[in-house]
Amino acid sequence: MMQSMYSHSHLFGGNAPFIEELYEQYLADPNVVPAEWRDYFDKLAMAPGAAERDVAHQPIQESFIQLAKKPLAGQRSSDVANWESMQKQVGVLKLISAWRVLGSRQANLDPLKRMDQETMRELDPAQHGLSDADMAVQFNVGSLVAPQKLPLSDILARLKQTYGGNVGVEYMHITTSEEKHWVQKRFEGDLSTPRYNAEKKQRILKQITAAETLERYLHTRYVGQKRFSLEGGESAIAALDHLIQNGSAYGVEELIIGMAHRGRLNVLVNTLGKLPRDLFAEFEGKAAQELASGDVKYHMGFSSDIPTANGPMHVSLAFNPSHLEIVNPVVEGSVRARQERRNDVEGKSVVPLLIHGDSAFAGLGVNQGTFNLSQTRGYRTGGTIHLVINNQVGFTTSDTRDMRSTLYCTDVAKMIEAPIFHVNGDDPEAVCYVMQAALEYRMQFKKDVVIDLVCYRKLGHNEGDDPFLTQPMMYKRIAKHAGVRAMYAQRLVAEGVLKAEAADDLIRAYRDALDKGEHVEQTVLSNYRREHALDWSQYQGTHWAHPTDTSLQQADVQRLVEKFTHVPADFKPHPTVKRVIEARQAMARGEQPLDWGMAETLAYASLVTNGYAVRISGEDSGRGTFSHRHSVLHDQNREKWDQGTYIPLANMSENQADFRVIDSILNEEAVLAYEYGYACSAPDQLVIWEAQFGDFANGAQVAIDQFISSGETKWGRLCGLTSILPHGYDGQGPEHSSARLERWLQLCAEHNMQIVMPSEAAQMFHMLRRQVLRPYRKPLVIFLSKRLLRYKDSMSPIETITQGSFRPVIGDASIQDPKKVKRVLLCAGQVYYDLVNGRKERGMEEDVAIIRIEQLYPFPTELLQAELAQFSHVKELLWVQEEPRNQGAWYQIRHRLEGLLQAKQTLDFAGRPSSASPAVGYMSKHVAQLKSFVEEAFSLNK
Predict the structure, then answer these.
(1) Which of 201, 270, 303, 743 has its Cβ near the most Cβ atoms within 10 Å?
(2) Beta-carbon neighbour count of residue 88 at 10 Å?
(3) 198 neighbors 443 (Cβ within 8 angstroms)
(4) What is the C-alpha to C-alpha distance for residues 350 and 656, in angstroms, rounded to an integer?
(5) Residue 775 has what DSSP assignment?
(6) Same domain, yes or no, for 313 and 408?
(7) Beta strand pairing status for 848-853 and 809-810?
(8) From the Swiss-Prot or TrEMBL record, what is one GO molecular function term (predicted)?
(9) What are the pLDDT digits (tens) for 736-746?
(10) Is the pLDDT assigned to residue 679 strictly greater than 60?
């Protein structure tokens, strides 16, 4: 075969498109091409310098030349293609490939035309051995979507129009041939040129007119007030309208939008149909005060149902703080929950749209985390459409050398091989065109796609800013710019699509409607009831102490344990796992107390078999960081993931609810924000995020501060997300001891969260069930002791499951005569057992009572007061904690404890001394501190 290849070198060159296609298949997967060709391509790839070449096809193209240079011995010269002609043909193929790779750098993308474009020599025909004399010569176009042969002038014209016009396409970084060919066919087939009828063009003009007119109206009516104008990027409104109106044709029923504040008011009014009068009331401070604290108008969310030719489209704009891109994983989580509610496994009916700023897109790490989630099994949503409003200035940094280290602000998206469509914002038709391409790509390949809408920002960062202070030359150009609406209106007049006065009439009609606080026309459906809408009314106005039975009957316990300890006959678990399973069976029989892993597993089993789905995610959630959960079993004899794992909780019964446990990517910020968004759209599920160690939540502090703790008071968003944070001082040093309890408690107010520090296994069981069964949806944060997972004294008898409930306060049942007690110790978490052991060592069982406060917020005042009532004669009360004095719960609950003191009672503290670090790093010092504060706790009459 190889000899045949060489002996027919003229055919080899003549069939260059076929060979190029074969080589492309080889680049994607060497195993799909015949062995002889694979061997030949391998040798080309190993040639000196091949790895450093910019263009992937260069080795095979150069081989065309070499094969034609030297005819093989015995061949007639008439059988060999003219070397010069072959060189020209190869040059054409190289030119095509170069434009595909680098054409976007020569595209007409900047409306301001500020920067001189760098000349790309690779795009010059002369660089590939082609001259003006070759322009009329017919060449084979290879894989270019065009007639098979064209004059070089036509080939070059098609390349410039496709890749160097108002649209620039980046896709050659994609390694999957099918996706790459789709983009080629899509853009090369129509030369990146939209062909809209008059009706569509008039609709586009109407959209950008609305966008511009609203901004100018607000600018004159509310002088100096912040609104983060969209002026300069008005084409985005036309693109959103196009997406909504055309998305329904592909089966999209919901569009969930996440965006920061730039242009948000415009999207609220002109895309989602918020009444202008309601927006004006917010500007004037007359809006209804329905929320505890509320938020500024350019952070608020909104949703509506918009009519389209293919049925209603539900569009939601997610609430978002000023932390820009942090909303992105929140939106993705919400989309995933909505898709699962519809049983939409392909991600077809609910689509996420994320609107970014250029600096934020490139600069904020949460985007990398969100991209990293996009194709993982537990987080994929079938692809996201990203729209970057690229005003080329970011906040105040107009020099790209200070904004990022990449050529484009969108380069971060290449990490997942997303295609990137750059487009000039002054061409609204091109913007709609690339939005259509993005929609089709997303629906076809279920992957992310990025639109880089290159525009400008007419005003400063906010309306009180003077941009001339930092970008004088840029804003001199902006001041002279006519604006996209005026330019497009002139274009349509020149095309004969409408008359000049008709364009002016659009402005007058829109302004007249704004004067009335109305829309020009009805853009949303009223009184439309969606099939998959959630009813939150049952969760509103409820109390954390709502009576809820969380116990299980003994028969139910036996039935559930039998199910989740069953392992298929041909499945070989690890010996350690086998022992765990056998132990759980013994626990169910009452032969030994329930450990924490058993209590937790039993809670999940009881929920999924009663119709409540459970979703757990974290960096090692399947096994459990401390090897206590083992919810995913691994066959010791099978390697393949889909065959070698077994999830007992997902195989409880035929009609059970979903149980999903996810070993997440190594990222806290994006994952926690994602789970928050998921839980906000899944109130009927137990949604859990588990930190590998509690202090790892530090990396997600923005999600905690801006969403989890304040989402309800700012935006009215209820959320039942559960967070498990391993916490406890075991001598492991500063980074694996504290989950920063003090920070969480400092965020607590208005019953916004539940902070729990359990000390018994049964508490875990009841707490998890209570979180779902009780009609109360607030974030639950569990400070979980690592040490207690296997600490025998913290395990619970089976009766605490079949008869008990969660106890916010646990009194001291060992005290026989309360009147003999001389001191009461109050504590939370694992330190309780240090105190119990210390009391026993000192023989002070009758002198000291130990009360555990398991729920630190909302503080169980009445329950603690009832426990303390029997010790009203005791003068000394101590709060004991293992955290340093300036950390932990002490300063956050001290006032609550003091409010319960009787006359002549005092409250003191025992714990580690104040420290700048969460914990010491030396075991000896750790033990000494523990010994010291335990001694202090039992030193009576000090």
Answers:
(1) 270
(2) 18
(3) no
(4) 24
(5) S
(6) yes
(7) antiparallel
(8) oxoglutarate dehydrogenase (succinyl-transferring) activity
(9) 999 999 999 99
(10) yes
Contact 675, 687 (CB under 8 A): yes
Q: How many domains does the chain have?
A: 4
Is pLDDT above 50 for 831? yes
Bridge partner residues of 849 (DSSP): 824
For residue 861, the cross-strand partners are: none
Q: Which residues contact 161 (CB under 8 A, 6 or more apart)?
A: 191, 192, 193
For 35-100, what is the HEC assignment?
HHHHHHHHHHHCCCCHHHCCCCCHHHHHHHHHHHHCCCCCCCHHHCCCHHHHHHHHHHHHHHHHHH
Q: Decide if 45 is inside a domain.
A: yes
Strands 633-634 vs 645-646: parallel, antiparallel or unpaired = antiparallel
pLDDT value, residue 18: 57
In a domain, 537, yes or no: no
**Per-residue pLDDT band at 4 (split at 50, 70, 90):** very low
Burial class (CB in 10 A: 0-12, 13-18, 19+), 74: exposed
Alpha helix segments (H runs only) across 348-499: 358-363, 365-373, 400-403, 428-445, 472-480, 484-495
Q: Are residues 444 and 593 in the same domain?
A: no
Give me the domain span that covers residue 415.
Answer: 198-285+296-515
Q: How far apart are CA 391 and CA 456, in angstroms?
A: 4
Q: Which residues pair with 755 in a beta bridge?
A: 781, 857
Residues 6 or more apart whose CB falls under 8 angstroms from that of 653 comprise: 563, 609
Active site amino acids: 8
- Rounded to an integer, what is the distance from CA 41 to the centroid of its chain? 40
CB 724 within 8 A of CB 688: yes
Q: Report the DSSP beta bridge partners of residue 660.
A: 615
CB of 524 closer than 8 Å to CB of 268: no
> At which of 802, 837, 869 does a domain end?
802
Whether 121 and 208 map to the same domain: the answer is no
pLDDT digits (tens, 9 = 90+) for 371-393: 999 999 999 999 999 999 999 98
Which is nearest to 238 in space by CA: 488, 441, 461?
488
Q: How far is CA 612 from CA 339, 536, 769, 771, in A?
A: 17, 16, 10, 11
Whether 608 and 658 have beta carbons less than 8 Å apart is answered as yes
- Angle in degrees, CA 315, 431, 346, rounded to 5: 45
Percent of the chain as helix, strand, coil, to the nearest 5: 45, 10, 40
Identify the CATH number of the domain in which residue 736 sits.
3.40.50.12470
Report residue 316: phi and psi, to 5°. -120, 135
Q: Residue 118 and residue 32: Cα distance in Å, rounded?
A: 39
Residues 640 and 780 in one domain: yes
Measured distance CA(588)–CA(366) in Å, rounded: 44
Q: Which residues contact 221 (CB under 8 A, 6 or more apart)?
A: 280, 283
- Asked if residues 371 and 433 have their Cβ atoms less than 8 Å apart, the reply is no
- C-alpha pair distances (Å), 895 with each of 376, 868, 898, 908: 46, 16, 5, 12
Long-range Cβ contacts of 728-731 (<8 Å, 24+ apart): 728/785, 728/786, 728/787, 728/788, 728/829, 728/830, 728/882, 729/831, 729/882, 729/883, 729/912, 729/919, 729/926, 729/930, 730/786, 730/787, 731/923, 731/926, 731/927
Identify whether residues 115 and 164 lie together within a single domain: yes
Q: Is 624 within 8 Å of 596 (Cβ atoms)?
A: no
The whole-model pTM stands at 0.90
The two structure tokens encoding residue 73: 């011995």
